[in-house]
Amino acid sequence: MLLLISGVPETLGGSAVATTLEGSTQVIARGPVAHFESIKQLGENGGGFFAMNSAHPLENPNPFTNLVETLAMVSIPAALIHTYGIFANNKKQGWLIFWMVFGIYVVLISIAAIGEYQGNPQINNLLGSAQPNLEGKEVRFGWAETALWAVTTTGTMCGAVNGMHDSLMPPGGFATLFNLFLQIVWGGQGTGTAYLFVYLILSVFLTGLMVGRTPEFLGRKIEKREIVLASVVLLIHPIAVLIPGAITLAFTNSLSGISNPGFHGISQVMYEYASAAANNGSGFEGLADSQPISTGLWWNLSTCFSLLMGRYVPIVALLLLADSMTNKQPVPETTGTLRTDSVLFTSVTAGVILILGALTFFPVLALGPIAEGYEISSGQFEPTPITSPSPLATPSP
Question: What is the mean pLDDT of residues 66-85?
Answer without folding.
Answer: 93
